[in-house]
């Protein structure tokens, strides 16, 4: 059950915000068009750190915490990735400890792997850079190019394999690419155009892959598609589970919830809604499908109506669970569940 929104987190002159795909229980990190990044305490609903004056007047397009190292956070702005040490006593952080310069074009998303040693950054050139973040300047591990013919919008490390990455782009066909970055090659391509769905939204909104998220057990990959569908895949088995007919407008973000059962999936859309889904167990789904049944991949549990179009979502297990929603306003809305 969802309750009303908590007191919103206000980020001045925010024309848009990004949130990390995984956040600690009581903290949230945001990036904004006002060329700042801020660390918020969800218990007090106040910022504990503000990173500003170091992004060369570029909007902060993506942010990420570092697993296994709560004192290190990263923010992307323009073609650079900046690293900050939160052990500093100052609330204002005006100089980054790290500046990673390996991308050729504007960065759309960054993600730090489970071990907290590698970062992937995808950009407008369609490439994905995998970077070793140990050391002040970092080290390029592999440049993944040729997989996408258009802007790469999302990239995530695969939780079940330390040497694999998935990325999604603004393409009509096989926009989702599974990489072996150790060898620098494509393992598999997955479709993002479910023509059998006969989705009328495709006439206006092409099914670009706007966001990717892995389930906690690493079995399911979800993709937020521009035609309003949510694509579901088993990357390890190289199989397509199918789409969720999720929204009446483009889906902009997707995340497996960090609270509740591991089958909980959050999706956000330009139709001004955020939906919490309960996905069916893959084993049960396959068994029923073989029997000739037509089971649904997932059912909507909660639907949140918004006043603004969202652009990113994140969740935390604080309390019984909180969903944080960034949009084009000056505030980040936080919705508790119980």
What tags apply to this protein structure?
single chain; 338 residues; mainly beta; five-stranded mixed sheet; four-stranded antiparallel sheet; 1 helix; 3% helix; globular
Textual characterization of the structure:
This protein has 338 residues and is mostly beta strands. Helices cover 3% and strands 48% of the residues. It has 1 helix and 29 strands. It has one helix at 282-290; strands at 9-10, 17-18, 27-32, 36-41, 46-52, 60-65, 72-77, 80-85, 92-93, 98-100, 107-112, 118-123, 128-132, 139-144, 152-157, 164-169, 176-180, 185-190, 209-214, 221-225, 229-234, 239-245, 251-256, 264-269, 273-279, 298-305, 310-316, 322-327, 331-336. The chain has a 5-stranded mixed sheet with strand order 2-3-4-5-9, with no helix packed on it. It has a 4-stranded antiparallel sheet with strand order 1-29-28-27, with no helix packed on it. Strand 28 (322-327) and strand 29 form a beta hairpin.
Number of helices: 1
User: Helix- and strand-based class?
Assistant: mainly beta
How much of the residues is beta strand, in percent?
Answer: over 45%
| Mean pLDDT across every amino acid position | 89
Spans of at least 5 consecutive residues whose pLDDT stays below 50 are 12-16
Number of strands: 29
Order of helices and strands: EEEEEEEEEEEEEEEEEEEEEEEEEHEEEE
| Radius of gyration, in angstroms, nearest whole number | 19 Å
- Tell me the helix content: under 10%
The main sheet orders its strands as 2-3-4-5-9
Question: Any idea what the shape is?
Answer: globular
Oligomeric state of shown chains: single chain
Distance between the termini: 5 Å
User: Biggest sheet, open or closed, and with what strands and sense?
Assistant: 5 strands, mixed
């Amino acid at each position: 059950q969802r309750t009303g929104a908590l007191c919103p987190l206000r980020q001045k002159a925010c024309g848009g915000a990004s949130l990390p795909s995984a956040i600690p229980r009581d903290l949230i990190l945001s990036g904004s068009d006002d060329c700042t990044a801020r660390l918020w305490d969800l218990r007090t609903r106040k910022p504990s750190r503000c990173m500003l004056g170091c992004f060369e007047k570029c909007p902060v397009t993506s942010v990420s915490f570092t697993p296994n190292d709560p004192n290190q956070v990263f923010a992307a702005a323009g073609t650079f990735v900046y690293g900050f040490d939160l052990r500093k006593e100052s609330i204002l952080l005006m100089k980054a400890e790290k500046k990673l310069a390996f991308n050729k074009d504007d960065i759309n998303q960054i993600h730090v792997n489970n071990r907290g040693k590698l970062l992937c950054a995808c950009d407008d050139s369609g490439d994905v850079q995998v970077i070793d973040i140990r050391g002040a300047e970092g080290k390029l591990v592999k440049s993944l190019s040729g997989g996408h013919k258009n802007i790469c919008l999302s990239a995530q490390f695969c939780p079940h394999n330390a040497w694999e990455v998935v990325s999604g782009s603004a393409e009509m066909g096989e926009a989702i690419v599974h990489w072996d970055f150790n060898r620098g090659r494509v393992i598999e391509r997955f479709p993002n155009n479910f023509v059998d769905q006969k989705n009328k939204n495709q006439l206006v909104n092409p099914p670009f892959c706007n966001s990717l998220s892995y389930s906690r057990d690493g079995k399911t990959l979800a993709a937020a598609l521009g035609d309003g569908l949510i694509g579901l895949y088993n990357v390890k088995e190289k199989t397509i589970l199918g789409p969720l007919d999720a929204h009446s407008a483009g889906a902009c973000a997707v995340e497996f919830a960090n609270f509740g059962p591991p089958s909980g999936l959050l999706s956000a859309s330009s139709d001004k809604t955020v939906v919490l889904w309960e996905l069916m167990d893959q084993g049960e789904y396959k068994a029923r499908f073989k029997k000739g049944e037509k089971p649904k991949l997932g059912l909507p549990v909660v639907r949140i109506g918004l006043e603004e179009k969202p652009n990113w979502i994140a969740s935390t297990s604080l309390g019984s669970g909180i969903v944080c929603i960034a949009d084009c306003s000056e505030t980040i809305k936080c919705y508790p569940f119980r």
